[in-house]
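Tutorial handout. Part one gives the primary structure; part two gives the three-dimensional structure as tokens.
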Amino acid sequence: MRVALLMSGGVDSTVAAHVLKDEGYDVFGVHMIHLDRPDDRVFEVSKKLGIDIEIVDVRRKFEEEIIDYFVKEYRAGRTPNPCYFCNRLMKFGILFEKAMELGADLVASGHYARVVDGKLFKAVDDSKDQSYFLSSLKKRYLKKILLPLGDMRKAEVLKLARELGLEFDGESQDVCFLKEDLKSFLKGKGLDPGPGNFVMNGKVVGKHDGYAFYTIGQRRKLGLSIGKRVYVVGVNPKRNVVFLGEKEDVMYDMMIVGSLNFLDDVKESFKSEVKIRSNFDAVSASVRIEGNFAVVKFDRRVFAVTPGQIAVFYDGERVLMSGVIERGERS
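Part two.
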């Protein structure tokens, strides 16, 4: 069976290629140019493994679909998650379709998650689980996807890489196109609101650098000293105001989630464990589907429900659906 492997040149996709070859698959690599140029490592490892590599230039689409979205969300006072949309639109969008055109029967990647009978599950190694980021995938594609590292632990992957004589640098960064700090990047893209007011309890308590550089729940790097710990509780892009409050003001009972992506069948109302950030411990919640929105009532109050971030809904290890957080609500 012919398998197209999404290859970055890093340790995970390289070991995934080796595992698939060892299992008898006819493997070829697909590598995307999304920034300046191909990663030279992908040519080195593909040669070492004896597999062909297909290069796909997605730079224009990446700029339009991922980077422009990223800036647009910050301009709207929201906090985006570009990796979620990159997986859907680039890796398991453009590259997936290209792989099918090239005669692939299946498409694989080095992500840590599992696909079983067309359903998405968490990885065995919970510390490396990437099901949160893969929850954007189109349901109909899951039966064509292989994730060979989903049943492995990172330590096993690194051990196998060493046995293969492969050497790699550290882990890749979260947002691949941020080669500088976020503020400098956004300013370079023309998003520079200029100084504005910090407001707390209706009073101006200081100046900030621009609303776009702050996110819900932030308490560090505010440049304030007002005698107590304060947090960002909201922003107003039109007025360039950042609202502050105490921790109680950024604890939420409910949230509204839009742009829903269903990976499994769900009832109109159901219980689920919900993650509102990738590094967030899932919280049990009651969920009600209303059109393309989910009304989520948490079993306990949660910190910093952030518009623009991704909510992922689980039934144990299984991913049910995902969506974009529109707002948090307090009773």
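Part three, for discussion. The first strand starts at residue 2 and ends at 6. The two ends are 55 Å apart (CA to CA).
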